[in-house]
Structures are given as C-alpha cells and as structure tokens.
Design a protein that fits this description.
single chain; about 170 residues; alpha+beta
Length: about 170
C-alpha cells in the first residue's frame, strides 16, 4: 500500500486494488485452518465496487489493549462520519438523497463510489487528542482521499492527449 496522506494522529495508506488484510491472509494461507472456508467465501463474494478499509493500531502497541481498542473505535467513528458528511456511506458508495425518489445507495456511475483498499494507521498522538481534533483530522484525510482517488482518472486522460515527451508531427 502507498501512503496517501498523513497527520500527527493518522496515516492513510491506499491502493486502488482490493487487498486482503494480513489477518485474513494468514487464515487463507493455512489450508487446514477451520475458518479458512468462511474467510475464503467472504472475500470471494465481497463487493468489488466498494472501499475496503480497516484501522491499524500497530504504532500504539505499547499501550494497553483498552487504549488501542478505544483509539481504533474513535478512528472508525470519525472516518464513517467524515464519509457521511461528504455524501458517502460507510463502504464508500455515494448516498442518494431521499428527494430523488430512489432509496438506497446504489451508484449510477464509476465516480459515485470510492473503491480500493484503505488502511488507517493510528499514531500515538491520537491517544492524547480530543474527539473534535480526531474528527477534524479525519475530515481532512477523507478530503485528500476523495481528491486523490478522483484525480488519476482525470490526469490519465490529460496525459494521453498532452504528453510533453511525445514528439509532435507536422501535418
């Protein structure tokens, strides 16, 4: 995964492809593990048009378990809220307004959802911060995520047409 953005409290690592998390990969790697079939089925049938995201507390392993789970819960809550404030559901799909007459959050176009895999890494500074600061940081990071996931589509089209290295031929 590639680091997309970072603040004092969080680091976002993103890749446009869907990546199976390390814990699930551990179970899938063992052919005799009892929950391997369940994990295999879960990832084989998982929607590929959504954002697969997870929270990692590896940098704060020195803290007690209750603190790590509290930080992870705050990060998940702030991330879901930031997505909701920008019109996305918890899986990165664009939510339709109730006034449009259609319920649900089914996307119409490719730009109606964020897809790929995202890891939110909680930094030790997050333990000391207030929830409002956590939410502010997460709002900023979600803005960066939305901007970066939409930008490559536009830039790829521009680069094909305006490649400065390509020699121009006279007509």
């Amino acid at each position: 995964m590639k680091t997309l953005a970072s603040t004092k409290q969080f680091t976002l690592r993103y890749v446009p492809k869907h990546v199976i998390p390390p814990v699930a990969a551990r179970y899938l790697g063992s052919p005799v593990h009892p929950i391997r079939p369940k994990i295999f089925h879960m990832y084989a049938t998982r929607d590929r048009n959504t954002l697969w995201w997870r929270v990692s507390v590896k940098p704060i392993q020195g803290f007690r378990r209750v603190v790590r789970s509290w930080c992870a819960r705050r990060a998940r809550l702030a991330f879901r809220q930031a997505l909701k404030d920008r019109g996305f559901d918890a899986e990165g799909r664009r939510m339709r307004s109730e006034s449009s007459g259609e319920g649900g959050s089914t996307p119409e176009r490719n730009d109606d959802y964020i897809h790929g895999s995202l890891e939110i890494v909680v930094q030790p500074q997050s333990v000391q911060e207030d929830m409002t600061v956590v939410q502010t940081d997460m709002h900023h990071l979600v803005d960066v995520l939305i901007e970066k996931t939409k930008a490559p589509l536009k830039n790829d089209d521009n680069q094909k047409n305006n490649n400065p290295r390509k020699k121009k031929t006279k007509e």
